[in-house]
Amino acid sequence: MKIGFDAKRYFNNRTGLGNYSRTLVSNLLKFHAKDQYVLYSPSIELTEEKTKLQSYDNVKIQTAGSKNHAIWRSFEIKKDINRDQLDIYHGLSHELPRSNENLQCKKIVTIHDLIFKKHPEFFPYIDRSFYHIKCKHSLNTADKIIAISENTRNDIIEYFNINPSKIEVIYQACQNTYYLPDKSSTVPLPKSFPSTYNLSVGSLEPRKNINAVIKAYSQISEKDRIPLFLIGNGKRHKKLLQKNINHFKLQKSIHILSNISSELLPTLYENAQMLIYPSLYEGFGLPVAEALLCSTPVITSNNSSLLEAGGPDSRYIDPYDAESIAHAIIDIQSNTELSTSMKTKGLQYATEKFGPKKLTDQLMNLYKDVK
Length: 371
Fold this sequence. Notes:
CATH topology of the largest domain: Rossmann fold
Number of strands: 13
Largest sheet: 7 strands, parallel
Radius of gyration: 21 Å
Strand content: 5-15%
Helix content: 40-55%
Number of domains: 2
Strand order of the largest sheet: 3-2-1-4-5-6-7
Shape: globular
CATH class of the largest domain: Alpha Beta
Order of helices and strands: EHHEHEHEEHHEHEEHEHEHEHEHEHHH
CATH architecture of the largest domain: 3-Layer(aba) Sandwich
Distance between the termini: 9 Å
């Protein structure tokens, strides 16, 4: 088969949707090397990713060249897709070309989340309007829809009234490093890190609900507090978090670390006592799956897709109840038997549920069925 991808995020986004795109394509090249792949991107910022792909005989990269990038991606790309005689065109991040009824191939779109519908308070009106138009068009014109969790599938049905038979749930695989037996062998833990610490990983924005973790830490006695590292990037909200840390006089206990490399993150997970992830809503909750694959106990919210990402042996809390978060932290810290059980069972769950070959084969079977 010949499969094309909307690769804008693949070549221009170092996190989130970019990681999803790169992991998906990487796994297809690993497990289904006989097929052909075309990556369409208006421009290329991550030149190192282009260099990697140039070593593959079955990969073609197509850019907009001197054309208007936005117009090309939405409209003019159709000429390139038809010229390349694709069997499948896969929009990896919510989008398909506009007026795509003349495309001579089948169309698939991945929907990661509909948080702009579930929690509109986190998005400006103009952004919500744009996301709605974009998603509605993609959902209505796709031959098949991939949802990255059952929860996202349910949201698609609820908010856009899409026929459930049109939607396939295929979970997001983690980056390949997370499946290695010893993550720390890749990048060692910095010497400045304490031997015992907790983690909270995710972009520094209100929806991640990190203030609830800070408040929970303020309710833990000083002798029971172990260092907590907040790993993530943010601007305005980062300042608000630091202000809150100062308010509770937790400067010695809670530390914000930004611009942590993806290579170091598995090591940080593997050496952490637990991950604390009280998000208010997620399309999947990738840090939860990453932590489990690193044998790290997880405390996370009892909502959205986090129950799927965390499995039966993570600790679920009410994200609006800081006291419940504090109790969960103390329980895991003080109970070695519980912590050990969560590590073993969490790793087993994530390995079976989010194994890269299993998920990639599921994706390829969908391509074949749609073709």
